Amino acid sequence: MRRYVFFLMISCSIAGTFLSCNPRPAGEQNAASDSNAARFKKQSDHTVAATLERDARFAVDAAGSGMTEAELGITAVDKASEKLVRQLGDSMAHEYAIANAALKGIAAKKNISIPAAPADGNLLHELRGIKGTAFDDRYLQQVKKMHGSDIELFKRYISAGKDSDLLRWAILRLPVLEQHLEYIKTVGSMVMQQRRTY
User: Fold this and answer.
1) Which InterPro entries match (predicted)?
2) Could you give the CA distance from residue 56 to residue 60 in angstroms, rounded to a whole number?
C-alpha cells in the first residue's frame, strides 16, 4: 500500500497535472487575489487601492473561468461521443486560448497577478472521468451554466470597472460570450434531436 501511495505521489509530481491528481477549485484564484490586494494597498491610498482591487478581481475571475473553459474544450475533443459536441469543444478551446492570452498580456502590463491554473479543478477532474453520452450531457450543462455566469460577471464589470484596457477587452468579449451561449444551446438541441432519431 505504501509503495502504491508513493508511486501515485511521484506520478502526480512528474506529470505536473495537479488538476487530475489533486483538484484545487479556488486556491489559485484566492492566491492571485491576495497578492493583488497586498500589492495595491502598499502602492495606493484606500480608494485607489479598492478600485485597482476590483479591476484585478475581474481579471482573476475571468482568467480562472477562461482557463477552465479552454481545458473543458480540450477534454470534450477527447471524450465526447457526438461529433457536434467535439466540434463545440474544439471551438471553445481555440477561442478561449486566444482570449486568455490577450487577458494575460493585459494583466502582465498592469502588474496584476492571475491564476496559473483553471478555476474549477474539481469539475475538470469529474469530467475527465466520464465519457460517451454522459460526458456530452454534463459538458453541455456545465458550459451553458459557466457562460451564463461569465456573461453576468462581464456585464457587472463593464458597468463598474475603471481600467480602460480591461474594459475594452471585456466589452469586445461580451458579445462573443453571448454568441457562444446561443451556440451551446443550439448544439444541445441538435444533440437531443439526433438521439430521438436513433
Assistant:
1) DUF4142, Ferritin-like
2) 6
At 105-140, the pLDDT tens digits run 999 998 899 888 887 778 889 999 998 999 999 999
Grid look-up 494575460 returns: 104
Among residues 55, 77, 76, 73, which one has the least CA distance to residue 65? Answer: 73
Task: Report the SS3 class of residue 80.
Answer: strand
- Cβ-based burial of 127 (10 A; exposed 0-12, middle 13-18, buried ≥19): buried
Q: Where does 19-197 sit in CATH, by number? A: 1.20.1260.10
Closest CA to 184 of 155, 147, 150, 131: 147
Q: What is the pTM of this model?
A: 0.75
Domain-wise residue ranges, the chain: 19-197
Q: Output the CA torsion 18→23→25→30 (10° steps).
A: -40
Q: Kindly state the cell numbers that stand for 54.
A: 476590483
